[in-house]
Every structure is written in C-alpha cells, then in structure tokens.
Amino acid sequence: MPQASATAGTALAAEGVSVAYGRAAVVEDLDLAIPPRAFTALIGSNGSGKSTILRTLGGLLSPRAGRVLLDGRPLSRLTTKEIARGVGMLAQGPVAPEGLTVLDLVRQGRYPHLPLFGRASERDEEACAEALALTGMTELAGRPLDNLSGGQRQRAWIAMTLAQETPILLLDEPTTFLDLAHQIEVMELLSRLVAERGKTVVAVLHDLNQAARHADHIVLLKAGAVVAAGGPEDVVTAERIADVFSVAVRVVPDPVTATPMCIPLPLRHRQHASCGG
Q1: How far apart, in Å, are the Cα atoms of 98 and each of 16, 73, 187, 235, 264?
Q2: What sign has the CA pseudo-torsion 34, 92, 244, 239?
Q3: Beta strand pairing status for 217-222 and 200-204?
C-alpha cells in the first residue's frame, strides 16, 4: 500500500512520481516517504523498479511527473552541489578511470565541499582517512583500483560515498561482489552509521534475510509500486513474499535477532505450504 504524502519531518520523499525510459513506464504515481535517521531497505524481484526509484531519489533520474523532496525542498530547485551535500549515492556497477588509486577515488567524495578551483583542506583529508578506516581500506589506499579484487573495489566505492559526509546515503546493492564476511561488515557498518551517527540509509538489497535483520524500515516493491512498507515484522510475510517473488517460503524468527527469516520451501512441498510464520 502506498505511503502517505511527505511531511516536513521526512528526510527524503517521492510525491506522485512517475519515471519512464523512453515510452516504457517503470514507476507510476509513486508516493514514498523515507524515515530520517533509520535504515530503509528496498526489496523486490528483478524489474520491480528498485534501482530506478533509488536513482530518482538521488537526483540521477528526473521524474516525468511528480517531485522528489529533500528535507521538504524539491530536488528540481536545488543545484547539483546542494543535492550532493545532502545525499550520497553509490550506484550499481560504478566505473572509475584507469589507474586511479583507492585514495584518489575516495577524495572524489569531497567534491561537494570544495570551493571552485579550491584545494583539499585538512578536514577533507581527515574525512577521507576516516572513510578508509571505516571500510577497512586504509592499507590499500595507495593501490590502483585495477589491482583490487571485486570486493575490495566495492569497499573503495563505499568509502568514497562515506567521505562525502552526507546525512543521507543511497546504496544500490552495496554487498555485491563481497564475500560473506565482508557482507556482514558492510551491513553492520551501515547499521552503526544510523545508530551512532544519525545517518539516513537507503539500500537496495536482494537478500531478504539480510534486509530483515538490519533494516528498521522495509519497502516491498512490485512493478514499480509499493506493496507494503513498514517494520520487518509487518512487511516480510509468507503471503507477500509469494505474491512478489512467486516463491513459497516459511517465515520464522531469526534465531539470533528474532527478526523475520525466510526459508524457501522445496518444490514438492509448496502446493501444501500454508501461509504462516
């Protein structure tokens, strides 16, 4: 069910937003409110509009109708630098120039804070050092991105986004290419940024259990529309997962966190599956 219209207390919101690629409509008349100082996960099957919505919230795509509000102000009335000071965006599959080092990349995150033709300040260098430390990339700061593993490159991009020091972080599949240990590190880092620094985090996630364990707020999407939004216990149900993903699951409490955990049912059991938790 769609969210109510944005209010002044909402960090980021879409009001009546429609987005299309050419003539193909991807999102129609979307109302979506992102709660401030919380971790929001966007989940849904491939083609549900998750990445399109995230890119629109970050100002990378312009809606053909409706508006996106940042702290109550339409993005369309803000400059690129103003948006970049408020929202840090890590898109899916980013590409950097050949030969760029990790530190060079992370320094690019300071662009919104630099004056025209200005040089990096001591504060800029401190922000970059902190971002490298938070992502475990300090020892690799001088390494070219081309020489890193996929997981290391992903952490370098996350460090660049953190160096931007924005109150809002938008991340499209931030655990892509990461092994299990680094997936856990990234998700716990994002949770800490919310809990300890009051950041507003919005991430597109494919792993439903990862979303339910770490997110305060979950938005379940289907065909560019909001099916449900709220806490994990309210959104992650067997009925909704079956509707959106066409997969029968049993939803049980996570034995560690007590948050909802989805267990896919074998094909032979699906016709007998009951809706339950």
Answers
A1: 40, 37, 29, 43, 42
A2: negative
A3: unpaired
- Mark 202-218 as b/e (b = at least 16 C-beta within 10 Å): bbbbebbbbbbbbbbbb
Pairing of strands 39-44, 200-204: parallel
Task: Indicate if the pLDDT at residue 1 is higher than 60.
Answer: no
φ, ψ of residue 187 to 5 degrees: the values are -65, -40
Which CATH fold would you assign to the domain 12-237?
Rossmann fold (3.40.50)
Cα separation, 220 vs 204, whole angstroms: 11
Phi then psi for 4, rounded to 5 degrees?
Answer: -70, 165
Residues 55, 60, 64: CA angle, nearest 5 degrees: 85
Residue 59 CA to residue 89 CA, distance in Å, equals 9
Give pLDDT tens digits for 187-203.
999 999 999 989 999 99
Q: What is the number of other CB atoms lying within 10 angstroms of the CB of residue 188?
A: 11
Helix, strand or coil, per DSSP, at residue 110: coil
Distance CA 193, CA 21 (A): 34
> Three-state DSSP class for 223?
coil
Name the pTM for this structure: 0.87
CB 12 within 8 A of CB 57: yes
The two three-digit tokens of residue 50, written as one number: 């998750």
Query: What average pLDDT is seen over the chain?
Result: 89
